[in-house]
Design a protein that fits this description.
The complex is a heterodimer.
Chain A lengths: L1 H17 L3 H12 L4 H7 L9 H30 L25 H15 L3 E2 L5 E3 H4 L19 E3 L2 E3 L5 H9 L4 E10 L10 E11 L4 H16 L5 E8 L2 E10 L16 E10 L1 H6 L8 E8 H9 L12 H4 L3
Parallel strand pairs in A: 1-5
Antiparallel strand pairs in A: 2-4, 3-4, 5-6, 6-10, 7-8, 8-9, 9-10
Chain B lengths: L1 E3 H4 L9 H10 L3 E6 L6 E14 L2 E10 L5 E6 L9 E11 L3 E2 L3 E3 L2 E3 L2 E2 L27 H4 L6 E5 L10 H12 L12 E5 H4 L2 E3 L7 E8 L8 H9 L7 H13 L3 E5 L8 E5 L5 E3 L5 E3 L5 E4 L4 E4 L3 E2 L12 E7 L2 H11 L4 H8 L5 H17 L2 E4 L2 E3 L9 E4 H8 L5 H10 L3 E5 L3 E5 L10 H12 L20 H15 L3 E2 L5 E2 L1 H7 L9 E2 L10 E2 L4 H13 L5 E11 L8 E11 L1 E3 L8 E2 L2 H15 L3 E5 L5 E11 L2 E9 L1 H6 L6 E7 L1 H4 L17 E10 L4 H12 L3 E10 L8 E10 L8 H19 L2 E2 L1
Parallel strand pairs in B: 12-23, 13-16, 28-32
Antiparallel strand pairs in B: 1-11, 2-11, 3-4, 3-6, 4-5, 6-7, 6-10, 8-9, 14-22, 14-23, 14-24, 15-22, 16-19, 17-18, 19-20, 20-21, 25-27, 26-27, 29-31, 30-31, 32-33, 33-39, 34-35, 36-37, 37-38, 38-39, 40-42, 40-43, 41-42
Helix pairs in contact in B: 6-7, 7-10, 8-9, 11-13, 12-13, 20-21
Classes of the chains: A alpha+beta, B alpha+beta.
Chain lengths: ~350, ~800
């Protein structure tokens, strides 16, 4: 019996040392200490041994079991370490192989930029607003002081659904719609699609604009300058200079265009900025009093500023995209770059 | 508008440099789009005198000239021109000279003879299009002199963008007025040195205005004994700088005065006017006129015409007629300087499809007072440059001079609007300096009348803008306003839409962004039901493919798959989030609803060295639908349906509380073929508006059971058409609260199960919130569930 025990132990220790993986080790464990294992059998048969031998043999068997358990544990740890790659036994992983990446989605660059811009104005307290893309001539033109016979109302410039109903040519009608719905203070940004009858390398018949409107007591042109300068510095970087120069829009007075220093030559003059050192970014101005009268705001009490600009051009400049149509062609080779 | 700096200096002193002037003009609102220096490329071109002209011995079309260029000696130049004679003085490019476009002159042999330079045509010097012969200079031009100052090529031309409200800027005097105020000086109108002859204008012609609403003022000047000839060089040069083509002295003078004063003029050949008189009237039914561009124009009674005693001779304010055009043999001229109603001119120009220099100016509103000066200025020049005699008297019909409006400027209001105090004195100086007449004045305000050239000023804000322009936008303070917040949320759904977009991108989908134009043909191509043909049509679409606004996102996403397949990208997992449009049944605007479309085709999991690619299938799409449902926090349900354009049996409707919001499925072959697709595509289409309404519910924490669950697996054989979901539902209703989860972990058909059957393996999770379930309890429940499945579905244990 004693010899058998020693034989079992020797064999088991050899098997344990020779186990190549965890599965093999588990099989060995079952062979030794499992329900029908060799050692289990010895222990089970102790009752048949002469009583005087029983304590000695019992102790020996338990000690053997103890030693084998330790050996199993040790080998298990070694094999686990090997399996997880930390052991010296396994060959080094080829880390030049590509990893298994999660699926990569791509947000359209127009929405990436729009989200960023809206986020900056939200910091300044602005709220999101929207308006219909299929709009009445009243909101798109009349309410914004565009005369009835103005050329922009031609079929050459504006898409018509029927007389009096157009695809909006600008996001500015949202100004009127918002002011009709609420009383000051008003602080909204309204991005969205706009449409013009125009299609070439730099014009798409559908494009994206964002509108901003701030109305309250005491809003000034100096505030307009401060807000938009804040936006430029946050979006384009603090090194960009801004300038406001007089311009004309029928629904602001005074009106201005905002230029930023050229991103390519930093203001020293180059082809991209036609040697001026400046790039036109947006149109803005103080809300025309006639708009306030139209929405029953007290034009003496309230003042406000408004601004609007194209997102497409900013996206194109930012990513050096040469043709506007790339933005709307749904070519994965383009979209997956962003 | 193109403004020559040399010309501009006739009217105003400019104490600053070229670039600084460009900056100052821009900051006044006259944006400089380009600065041209016409002579910048020209070097070493001098005046030469032709000494001799001999035929070239070996070339019929060439001659050999000896040209004296003073200090440079006498040069032998081979030349192809014909228009010169011995003694002519011409621009001569020396060897080493450069011409516009970087063209360099070298010594070269032409048909065997050496040619040491080039004599130039106007075109070669960048002076217009004339390439017919050499540019012959006046006899007294000094030989050997540099051509640049002589021809005014040392000029600078500013290309200025004139905003539509400031038509008065579109002339030399208009620009000079702004600069005069900026520099604190005055601008100069050229002196009128006209001498009238004894002949009375009223005896030679007359003017009748029949429609004074459309023509408030009409001025005529009669000139006799005019000698039509080319204009002098200085005048040609200025017209060319302004972008005009010289024609003859009379026409050029009208154009010159237009550029100078902004006022359009027209010269008629008086002899060709029936009864030598002018009638300003509406056109009559059926009248036509051949205009200067040799087109016959059909006129209608809404149009104002200039007529003689019998027929129209000009479309008023737009273009003159061919029959009364000034030509070589013209001797007597009727010179028109009028003011026409801007709206009438705009309507007529648009109706006739004619935009001319004159119509553009009348449309913006001309200067009714300037009309008189312009007529006299042109007459003066015709006297000086065309030998004309000016008939005595001016024919000036001006029945109802307008009363200018009055505008009040409160000094304090300027500070309130600009956020920067501007001294009252400065404000007054700017406004009056711009030609506004002071009507009333007190300590706090002024009331003024705009000058005749300002049609854009009608209220206080307009005057504040003038103050701001001259005070300098740069000098206005920069303040960050206190934060203000609208009380109302104007677009509550928009944030969730943006969150959904970010979520979909995080699921590995690529965002598409299509034009929102579509067509009925496209709806049919996609195989969508006929209800989608109810679209918002455009009256003036860019093309048939874009005849209407899209009624569904599906055609757009299929087109994207098709387009990318053509480029060799077959693996696509993409979405589009955006509006679709539905016509309104009543008089309201068409409606616009936010939709989501997802499309999967090709490999959903790309190929990798460790595993084969996984092609997208219906369950990838359904998985996304389930994820979106969870994300939106809405009980969206799927119901098997048969909807076009999906393959039969491969489609489900998406429902929210019984309301049909969309569908998902595998695209039918007919549609795939229509888009030239050769592998399966899976599309989901969902209307989001109802899903975005209201506030999403906030998840309430579910206590985590502290006791371990008991697990049981059941492999069941059922009829092949039994929905697995029904088994799960039945298991739940039998298992009650203790059955916390049922997972389907295997679905099998094949050798191991009989035909018409399938095996479904369920993993059941039992758990009690307050105790560990005993095996006995669990087995009992499990058997009960099995019995239910046996009796309801004929399920058998495998």
């Amino acid at each position: 019996m004693k010899e058998k025990l020693a034989q079992i132990e020797t064999q088991a220790l050899a098997d344990i040392a020779g186990a190549v993986d965890l599965k093999a080790l588990e099989a060995i464990r079952v062979q030794i200490v499992g329900r029908k294992g060799a050692l289990t059998e010895v222990l089970r048969n102790l009752g048949q041994v002469a009583p005087e031998e029983r304590p000695v043999l019992g102790q020996a068997a338990n000690q053997a079991k103890q030693r084998l358990s330790e050996a199993l544990d040790e080998r298990k740890k070694a094999l686990e370490a090997e399996a997880s790659g930390t052991g010296a036994a396994k060959g080094a992983a080829d880390l030049s192989l590509p990893g298994r990446r999660p699926r990569q989605g791509h947000m359209h660059p127009i929405n990436q930029v729009t989200e960023e811009i809206v986020g900056i104005f939200v910091e300044l307290g602005f709220t999101f607003a929207t308006g219909p893309e299929i709009e009445t001539e009243y909101y798109n033109f009349d309410a914004l002081n565009t005369p009835a016979d103005h050329p922009s109302r031609d079929l050459h410039d504006t898409f018509f659904v029927k007389p009096g109903v157009v695809l909006r040519t600008q996001t500015s009608p949202v100004q009127i719609r918002v002011m009709e719905q609420t009383k000051p203070p008003v602080a909204v940004v309204a991005p969205g699609r706009v449409y013009r009858v125009d299609s070439d390398a730099s014009h798409s018949p559908m494009f994206f604009q964002i509108e901003g409107l701030l109305v309250d007591e005491g809003v000034t042109f100096a505030d307009l300058k401060g807000s938009l300068q804040y936006f430029v510095h946050r979006f384009f970087g603090r090194d960009r200079k801004v300038r406001f120069r007089p311009h004309y829009f029928p629904f602001t007075e005074p009106s201005a265009e905002l230029d930023i220093s050229c991103s390519i030559c930093a203001g020293s003059g180059c082809r991209a900025c036609k040697n001026s050192g400046w790039m036109e970014l947006l149109g803005c101005g103080m809300v025309h009093p006639s708009l306030f009268r139209r929405v029953d705001y007290d034009a003496e009490k309230y003042t406000g500023y408004a601004f609007g600009f194209g997102i497409d051009r900013i996206v194109m400049q930012r990513h050096a995209i040469d043709t506007i149509n790339h933005l709307y062609e749904n070519d994965l080779r383009f979209l997956e770059q962003f | 508008m193109r403004v020559s700096l040399n010309w501009l200096k006739d009217y105003v002193d400019i104490p600053i440099g070229v670039d600084e002037l460009a900056h100052q003009l821009t900051m006044l609102g006259l944006e400089i789009e380009a600065i041209e220096r016409p002579g910048a490329d020209i070097k070493s071109v001098v005046v030469g005198e032709i000494q001799s002209i001999e035929p070239h011995p070996d070339a019929d079309k060439l001659v050999v000239c000896k040209t004296d260029v003073a200090a440079g000696g006498t040069l032998q130049i081979v030349c192809g021109a014909k228009n010169m004679s011995v003694g002519d003085r011409v621009p001569t490019a020396l060897v080493g000279a450069t011409l516009p476009g970087g063209f360099e002159i070298t010594k070269r042999r032409m048909r065997g003879l050496e040619s040491c330079g080039m004599m130039c045509s106007p075109k070669e010097l960048g002076l217009g299009d004339d390439h017919a012969g050499l540019m012959i200079l006046p006899k007294d031009t000094p030989v050997g002199e540099d051509i640049i100052p002589l021809l005014g090529l040392d000029d600078v031309v500013y290309d200025i963008e004139v905003t539509p409200n400031r038509g008065d800027w579109a002339c030399m005097i208009g620009v000079a007025r702004e600069l005069a105020l900026l520099f604190g000086g005055n601008y100069r109108l050229p002196e009128l040195r006209l001498t009238e002859s004894k002949t009375r204008a009223a005896d030679l012609s007359s003017v009748t205005i029949e429609n004074a609403d459309l023509c408030p003022r009409y001025i005529g000047r009669v000139l006799t004994n005019v000698k039509i000839a080319p204009s002098p060089a200085w005048l040609c040069r200025r017209l060319i700088a302004a972008g005009q083509r010289p024609i003859n002295n009379v026409v050029d003078i009208t154009n010159y005065v237009l550029m100078e004063t902004g006022h359009p003029l027209h010269a008629f050949d008086l002899a060709k006017l029936s009864e030598n008189r002018i009638v300003v009237r509406n056109a009559k039914h059926g009248e036509t006129l051949e205009t200067l561009d040799e087109q016959v124009r059909r006129l209608d009674p809404d149009m104002l015409v200039i007529a003689d005693a019998s027929a129209p001779v000009a479309v008023a304010g737009v273009m003159g007629g061919a029959a009364s055009e000034v030509g070589e043999n013209t001797t007597n001229i009727f010179l028109e300087s009028a003011y026409f109603d801007p709206r009438s001119i705009r309507r007529t120009a648009r109706a006739l499809g004619m935009q001319t220099e004159a119509s553009a100016r009348f449309q913006r509103g001309a200067d009714i007072d300037m009309a008189l000066y312009a007529a006299n200025r042109a007459a003066t020049l015709m006297q000086e440059l065309a030998g004309a005699e000016i008939a005595d008297g001016i024919l000036d019909e001006y029945p109802n001079p307008p009363t200018p409006n009055q505008v009040k400027l409160r000094y304090e209001r300027t500070g309130l609007l600009l956020g920067t105090e501007v001294p009252a004195q400065t404000q007054k100086r700017v406004v009056t300096g711009l030609g506004f007449d002071l009507v009333l004045e007190d300590d706090t305000s002024i009331t003024v009348q705009p000058p005749s050239w300002r049609h854009d000023v009608s209220q206080e804000a307009d005057l504040i803008e003038e103050v701001a322009r001259f005070y300098g936008y740069d000098n206005i303070a920069v303040t960050v306003p206190q934060a203000r917040r609208s009380e109302q949320d104007f677009a509550p759904g928009e944030k969730r839409l943006n969150d959904l977009r970010a979520f979909l991108v995080a699921q590995g989908l690529t965002e598409l962004f299509s034009w929102t134009f579509s067509s009925r043909a496209e709806v049919k191509r996609a195989g969508l039901p006929d209800s989608y043909l109810d679209m918002v049509s455009l009256q003036n679409p860019l093309s048939e493919n874009h005849e209407a606004m899209r009624s569904s996102l599906v055609p757009g996403v299929l087109a994207a798959v098709s387009r990318n397949a053509r480029y060799g990208s077959h693996d696509i997992a993409a979405f589009e989030l955006g509006p679709v449009y539905t016509p309104a049944s009543d008089n309201t605007l068409p409606s616009q609803t936010a939709h989501l479309a997802i499309v999967l085709s090709g490999a959903y999991t790309p190929k990798h060295w460790s595993r084969p690619p996984h092609p997208a299938d219906l369950y990838d799409l359904k998985g996304l639908a389930e994820a979106i449902t969870d994300f939106l926090g809405l009980p969206l349900a799927l119901e098997t349906a048969d909807i076009s354009p999906y393959a039969p049996g491969q489609c489900a409707a998406i429902l929210l509380s019984g309301q049909h919001l969309g569908h998902l499925g595998e695209v039918a072959n007919a549609t795939l073929n229509a888009y030239e697709l050769d592998r399966p595509a899976y599309v989901l289409n969902l209307c989001l508006d109802p899903a975005l309404e209201g506030t999403p519910s906030v998840h309430q924490y579910q206590p985590i059971a502290p006791f371990p669950p008991s697990l049981r697996d059941l492999a069941l054989v059922v009829d092949a058409d039994t929905p697995a979901g029904d088994l799960v539902e039945a298991a739940h209703s039998t298992g009650g609260k203790l059955l916390t989860a049922v997972d389907i972990f295997d679905v099998y058909t094949g050798k191991q199960v009989p035909d018409g059957k399938k095996s479904i393996a369920l993993s059941l999770v039992f758990q009690a919130p307050d105790k560990t379930l005993t095996d006995k309890n669990t087995d009992k429940l499990c058997k009960k569930i099995l019995r239910t499945l046996e009796s309801n579905f004929g399920a058998t244990l495998r």
